[in-house]
Amino acid sequence: MIQRTAEATLHRLAKGFPVICVTGPRQSGKTTLARKAFPHKSYLSLEDPDIARLAREDPRGLLDRYKGGLILDEAQAVPEIFVYLKTVIDKDTTPGRYIVTGSQQFNLLNHVTESLAGRAAFLTLYPFSVQELKGAEITILDPFETVLKGFYPPLFDRDVTPYDWYTNYISSYIERDVRSVINVKDLGQFQTFVKMCASRVGQLVNLSALAMDCGTTHNTAKAWLSVLESSGIIFFLKPYHNNFGKRLVKSPKIYFIDTGLLCRLLGINDAEQLFLHPNRGNVFESFVVAEMLKNRLNKGLTPELYFWRDNTGTEIDVVYEDGKVIRSVEIKSGKTFTTDFASGLEKWMRYSGEAPETCSIIYAGEMEIKMKGIALKKWDSVDL
Fold first, then answer.
1. Which pLDDT tens digit goes with each residue over 10-52?
2. Are residues 200 and 261 in the same domain?
3. What is the DSSP track for 23-57?
4. CB 3.0 to 4.6 Å from 166: which of 51, 264, 280, 375, for a disulfide?
5. How far apart are CA 193 and CA 185, in angstroms?
6. What CA–CA distance (Å, rounded) separates 212 from 305?
């Protein structure tokens, strides 16, 4: 079993809060993590029809039966349970009593915020990170093979091809989850919408253009994006809020949490096709940014990752605050290092006044050096 970095964070949170909510996309390993971290706790899945019926008909009786605590899996399936959970916790605030998991973050967070404010801590779990795979001594050789395969746990413990698994994942989970949250009248139109999002990975979000290309309305496109985000399929990188120089953009950039899913939506079926694909740079950028996001969330840190663009079009892929300094990262999908990789960072340093030691370049190659103080890092060494 691959050790999850988030397990240490889960144990830490369980020392201070009576309820820990583990959220994230379906099949990201939430249940496995919760059961491994707390092997002596009883486990109930509220997606089991019999358990769900019992939770609806006699929630107080169900919780009374497990006074010592419980792992409640897919808790958003029975939202009524949260009101009774609050009553039980108010009588006994022992830390770490309940571990609640849920795949639809939007629904789960709403119910937890309403019923368990101040009583619950949150942990977001995405699919494996490269660091977790390396820690398990899983061989990772080629960046494009890795990006194409993706990082969902079932791909590492089953004899299944990424193509077959992601095809099923799209139909079984993405479409089902979305349809359970909002009324999608035309499933084909929604499928087109998701693929159009994939084709725009790494780009600024233009709702009007996205809606027009998919034949839907601005408000519908906005609602669908919100559901994809809350389901852990996509995320948005916002422009840095303390720009040096005039800021021209307010729109975020769209990325996919998992590049295997992204490649399937783009119709990319092998590493050679990915290497030659016109969107290769944006796909690789999505991979690196997602790794940064996973590493921060696994440690219980808020994401707080941004991009920066000045009024001349100079852009830095990722910037984030680290104490009193602002760190910047450029992402390059080439395997051959060239001095042009650092041109954007040199302009950034003139604007921001930051030292070269706060800048780094992550690329698809294997060499690690420093050039004028700027660190060149391998693609599989992403860590924050």
1. 999 999 999 999 999 989 999 999 999 999 999 999 999 999 9
2. yes
3. E-STTSSHHHHHHHH-TTSEEEETTSHHHHHHHHH
4. 264
5. 13
6. 29
- The tens digit of pLDDT for each residue in 286-335 reads 999 999 999 999 999 999 999 998 777 789 999 999 999 999 999 999 99
What phi, psi does 201 have (nearest 5°)? -55, 135
Contact 218, 244 (CB under 8 A): no
Q: How far is CA 235 from the centre of its chain?
A: 7
Q: How many domains does the chain have?
A: 3
Residue 50 to residue 44: CA distance in whole angstroms: 11
| Residue 37 near residue 10 (C-beta atoms within 8 A) | yes
The token duo for 73 is 């899996």
Cβ contact 109:121 at 8 Å: no
Q: How many residues does the chain have?
A: 384
Task: Mark which of 220, 253, 285 sits at the end of a domain.
Answer: 285
Residue owning tokens 């709702």: 207
Could you identify the residue written with the tokens 């969330």? 297
- The answer on 45 and 59 residing in a single domain is yes
In a shared domain, residues 189 and 84: no
DSSP H helices, 200-320, are 207-214, 218-230, 259-266, 271-276, 280-298
330 and 275 inside one domain: no
Amino acid sitting at position 346: E
**Cα dihedral value 290, 292, 296, 299, nearest 10:** 90
Whether residue 1 lies inside any domain: the answer is no
